[in-house]
Amino acid sequence: MSGKCVTWIAVGLSALSLVMVSAPGAMATARTASTPHTSTATHAHTHNPVSTKRSRGHAAPRTAGTRPGASRHQSKAVAAKHRAAKHRAAVKRARASARHRSRLTTRATLHRTAHRAGHAKTHVAVHKAVHKAVHRAARPVLKPQTAAQVAASQAIRSRAIYYARGIGLASDLRGVLPSLYQGKWYVRSVESTRMCIIRRESHAWYTSGHGPYRGAYQMSKSLAAGAIRAMAPEVAAELGPQGTTILKSLKAKPINAWNRYWQDRAFWTIWRKGAGAHNWGSSCHG
Predict the structure, then answer these.
(1) What are phi and psi of 214, to 5 degrees?
(2) pTM summary value
(3) By CB distance 3.0 to 4.6 Å, which of 92, 229, 230, 256 could disulfide with 214?
(4) Is residue 126 domain-resident?
(5) Which residue, among 114, 104, 107, has the nearest Cα to 136 in the 3D structure?
(6) Structural domain includes residue 70
(7) Is 10 exposed, middle or buried (0-12, 13-18, 19+ CB in 10 A)?
């Protein structure tokens, strides 16, 4: 072979060896150039489901240390606290309004108030609060008596017991005198009419006992018994047990055996501010 041929063969072998050495890098470069499209597609394929799930309302992946459903329980607790605060505020408003009213709302208004509050417990609490306030407002407000008023009422009670026992003027059973009873049913303007009835019926004799009608006011036995029944609760309230005992003892006696106080009291109880005036006709009171 000639020297040129040997030279060309050597150059060719050198070039071949260079090609073989650089071929793996070229192939890697070619693969890297073709990979971006595939990796982008793979990335899109990998992350799209997550983004799709998020767009559909799924929760984000749970981080370490959180409990499943913790946020849901927290929202329920907040809602419960809100309802409790609303309930307390409604009850407080109802009690405040009830305290400052003299005439309170009706049952229908209570139902509307509870309905606006929107809670079953509020309905019950509002009903109880207003019911209690209604009963408190319905009770009469009694003004405290002064020392003079207390002394006067005690003096009247002592005098009434004194007369009920038949002492003093109560033992005088003849003649026209001012009424010894001046309690609830006494009417000062009718006093002249009462005196006229005494003169006409019995000539002012409290012991008069002719026929079925007896006493200064000529009452029948049934009318006297009705007077005892009508006087019983008032006597118990005004004179206490002592007055009640004396009144019970009158049941066994005819009315003309009663003293002046009890006969006068029986007349005013039956007269009842004009409601029982028909028992004595109309010649004295028109």
Answers:
(1) -135, 165
(2) 0.51
(3) 256
(4) yes
(5) 104
(6) no
(7) exposed
